[in-house]
Amino acid sequence: MEMNLMVLSTKSSKSVQKGYFLKDLVNLFRYSFVTPDPDKADLCAAQIVQRTERLTIIFQVLRNGLDQNNSSNVNTFGYRRYNWLDWIIAIVALINWFRCIGLICNSSDTVNIILGDPLFRSKDRLACIILAFITLTVLFSFREWILSLENKGNIGTLSIWKFCRYSFNPVYLEMDKLNVNRFRLIVISVSVVSYCTIFIGPLFASFVFIIPLLTNPWMNKIPELLFFCFLWSLSEIFIASFLLSAVLGFSWYLICTFSFHSYRLLNLIYKADYLKNSTAAVYARDVQLLCLLIIRRLNSFELAVRKVRYVILYICIVLTLLCDTFIFLGLIVRVYNDFLANLLATVGIFGLPSIGVFGYIFGNFISELDKLTVRLHRLALNNKLSLKETSKVLEVMDRVAGPYNGLKVGDFLTVERSFFIFYVLENITTLMLFTVNIGPLIK
């Protein structure tokens, strides 16, 4: 009887989650073409944010979700002292890391069988294992780095929009209704995509590691190989699910946080236009308040970018090179078989342009600050201001138009949207050169 109740409750919970997903997907398309009711849109967006945040906490993307702070929580035993799941993930990752080394350096069939080599005596076996070793190193390092930054309080700026879990109130967001609606649509879109990709991550990992077992003819000839490969594949699926979720989940936090800052900066243009209709009595005071607001929001945005500038550098260089490798092995080399080659090519093709689109969109937001400079110039030329107040506006104009306004990458590079376009194009050009010059030799 109790077993039947557990089965019924499990089925009902799955049906409820499926109903939530379908409802969110319908609302996403509906809100893209019609003007939504503010209350219903707020409730829908808040529920999506809550569920996505809960999923990132379950997959240990960030332990505290949006409840971050800027204080350090470092203890003498490291940041895994009270988190057993982090220890399990790290131990399983290290075991598979040393296993990859053993499969790369070893040539004994007996050891390969015990280590569960899924590509036993197969074509391009060594290249695939080396790729898996590099991917595991890159993703595991990224996840450990993010958790370390969270423990040290260096990503507290990502929680600036945490009140959106309950409502998208223009008063709390400090935006006009138009920018609130745009920001809400961005959050809904990114959250639905992130939620779906994280949710189906274990299924995707299962296909990646189970398909080689089914396509390798040696599995039928050596039962011990099939047994050990199946056992090892469980640990591979486990660690791949968490590492993939770390990248996707942190991207969700990053995109939503930068969107929040970007729309607050765009809202400054609306405020500057509103001042043109002010009377002379309140004009000077409103201009002073606008200047203070501009400085405060620029400081907030630049602080958020500065805290994660090395993470952005890691994403731009390491992860893009990994996507280039996937495309090269999937489209040019065609490693192992058509299924694995197409899978690698798909991941690389979708991963590489997404980084370029990310940079282009937020570079476009920063470029919109040129319009704010024009508005400030008009305000400075207005005869309602004194010489001292005009000088203050000119100082703020220099701050808005400064060369440092952009996406900070590392310590020495601040890039605009054109950089990401050229960066992705250079990657694609390099791959084309490899295709033309190396492709025929490989074939």
From TrEMBL:
It comes from the Eukaryota. Coiled coil: none annotated. The keyword ATP-binding does not apply. The chain crosses the membrane at residues 84-105, 126-146, 185-213, 311-332, 339-362, 420-442. Keywords: Membrane, Transmembrane, Transmembrane helix. This is Gustatory receptor. It comes from Tetranychus urticae (Two-spotted spider mite).
